[in-house]
Design brief:
heterodimer
Chain lengths: ~180, ~190
């Protein structure tokens, strides 16, 4: 015979007892007014808890939250586009400089290539011309110009990047309070 | 339009359809809010914490592997965020200060006159938020969110046995309080 405790009554209520135990509890409830009272109130508690209604949030909650989420996902995209455009610009500039070097080298060595007979002479002429052109480009006034252009690009990029970071932080900060 | 499952919505959000996350928000917001409101006992704060929970869940969707149900995963975020908030406010965080073996006294929360003025349903619903936070969370998850004992144990990070003990203890304490009032006499 099982002892009727609060735990057993709860298990009986939740249907966690086996058939034999259920019969014993039923019998105990039938024979004891005290157990019956305890169980009935427990069932009332259970039934009333089962009909608890959910609380309603303010109507604009979802819209405000979604605005914040969409704003958050837009900021990194903008940053990506900005970085991509800066990288592209620098790459194009490098290509232009390289192209100019090549053209300068070709024009400087075209006469000597025409005179030489062997492939070896042609290659050595071309490489010598390239070195000369690069030396010309990266020495004296040429180096100063290139350095200035790069510094200017870095400064402008840095400024815009800083501004973008500041703006995105401000956006996130505003979004904290719906 | 058929009712999309949580997993289908999550997959869509992961593919870049951020606006689909609103379906998840609408699906869980009121239930999670009900739990938070009873745990934190402050409506405004609960709304703020809930917003934080949805943002956390959104950012962590990449880490959601689908090993448990989305609801279980999300309620774990809600429950832990609520506990963190309670602890940061230096309120008495029952989860940290007491064990499952500790007792609580609901009787001290109400005066006899106050009890007799209420009807049973209102009285019991009021009492849920008078329980310690972890007990409130269990009652809300079990009855309102219709979660299984196993899911609740996963959310709270405690054993199934402990969840049952706490659920039974909550019901018993509510019952004992009712038995001491005239409300019980009227009902029986």
């Amino acid at each position: 015979m099982i002892q009727i405790t609060d735990e057993i009554l709860n298990k009986y209520l939740d249907g966690e007892l086996n058939r034999e135990e259920v019969e014993q509890v039923k019998s105990a409830l039938h024979n004891s007014e005290d157990f019956q009272k305890k169980f009935n109130v427990l069932k009332i508690v259970h039934d009333n808890l089962s009909i608890v209604k959910e609380d309603e949030l303010s109507p604009g909650f979802t819209d405000k939250l979604m605005k914040q989420i969409l704003k958050r996902s837009t900021v990194p995209k903008q940053q990506k586009y900005f970085i991509a455009s800066v990288v592209t610009f620098i790459t194009l500039l490098c290509l232009v400089i390289f192209g100019l070097s090549i053209s300068a080298m070709i024009s400087a060595t075209s006469s000597s290539i025409g005179d030489s007979n062997s492939v070896f002479d042609s290659v050595s002429g071309l490489s010598g011309g390239l070195v000369k052109a690069l030396q010309h480009l990266f020495s004296g006034a040429g180096l100063s110009i290139i350095g200035s252009i790069f510094s200017l690009i870095v400064l402008i990029s840095g400024y815009f990047f800083f501004e973008m970071q500041k703006r995105s932080k401000a956006n996130l900060g505003n979004g904290q309070h719906l | 339009m058929r009712n999309l499952s949580d997993q289908e919505i999550i997959d869509s959000v992961r593919k870049g359809n951020d606006s689909d996350y609103s379906i998840i928000v609408n699906r869980y917001k009121n239930k999670a809010f009900s739990m938070l409101k009873r745990m934190l006992k402050n409506e405004f704060e609960s709304e703020e914490v809930l917003q934080d929970c949805f943002l956390k869940a959104y950012k962590s969707l990449v880490n959601f592997k689908g090993e448990s149900k989305f609801s279980t995963w999300f309620y774990r975020i809600v429950y832990n965020t609520a506990l963190t908030r309670l602890s940061s406010q230096k309120r008495k965080t029952e989860s940290e200060m007491t064990s499952v073996e500790d007792h609580f006294n609901l009787e001290s929360e109400y005066g006899a006159d106050e009890i007799e003025k209420k009807d049973m349903k209102e009285f019991i619903h009021d009492l849920i938020s008078k329980l310690p936070e972890r007990y409130t969370a269990i009652i809300t998850m079990f009855y309102l969110n219709e979660m299984s004992i196993e899911e609740i144990s996963e959310v709270m990070g405690i054993t199934v046995t402990n969840v049952k003990v706490m659920l039974h203890r909550s019901r018993n304490s509510l019952r004992d309080l009712i038995l001491k009032t005239k409300l019980a006499e009227e009902l029986l």
